[in-house]
Amino acid sequence: MDNFLKIGERIEDLGLKNLKIIQNPEFFCFGMDAVLLSWFVSKHTKGCIDIIDLGTGTGIIPLLLYGKTKARSITGLEIQEPLVEMARRSMVINGLTSQIKILHGDIKNPGEEVVPNHYDVVVSNPPYMRADAGLKNARDTKTISRHEILCSIEDILIFSKRMLKDRGRLFLVHRPERLADIISLMREYKIEVKHLQFVYPSIHKQSNLVLIEGRKGGRAGLKTEAPLIVYNEEGQYCDDIYDIYGMKKPEQGDC
After folding, report:
1. Predicted pLDDT of residue 254
2. What pTM did the predictor assign?
3. 210 forms bridges with which residues in the sheet?
4. How many structural domains is the chain composed of?
5. How remote is the C-alpha of 244 from its chain's centroid?
6. 3-state helix, strand, coil in the chain (%, to 5)
């Protein structure tokens, strides 16, 4: 296995059905937003579904969705070739090369393997920052992952409108300050927002993430779910976060 890894890489145990992922700190490693998004998708979906993850990076969301759903197929689409190669090796170490397909492609021109009107679910943890916001190196892997250089919200919606089945669902995680623009664009592309859930670092702080579910061709009607609070007064994870991560809860400090 050591020969399977490249310089700077490590294998992390996801704590879910013995799944593992290859990570490299030089690239954009996954964080809590990917974990929360996968959980949000899993609680709003059921049955044998076909899922595609846009901007899959090192494949964290496909792996988590494999562990949390009964998906018939899971595809990850990624434009950055080094991340594609790393994600594919993660599928190899998990023995999931037939269950999870990692494609090298552009969301704007994904290629023939991505079939229109085929997917039940499109999911994405997209770049949060506008292309011109603090941009330093437009070709840097971390910059591409954080800034809307190669993938904007509108690109995701164009893709989703074309590739989702009728009544198929789009799941996103994003920053609350972008929410008004996101909802407006979703309605423009005939994807109606159905569920929102705000995530708060603590009960005393403003929300820093929002989980979004939209339905292609859906009727108007939005539900906001109970807020998800990450840390309690003692600085420990709240019970919900321990449950989402599948970790043992602390004995004290409930939220």
Report:
1. 53
2. 0.91
3. 174, 198
4. 1
5. 15
6. 30, 25, 45
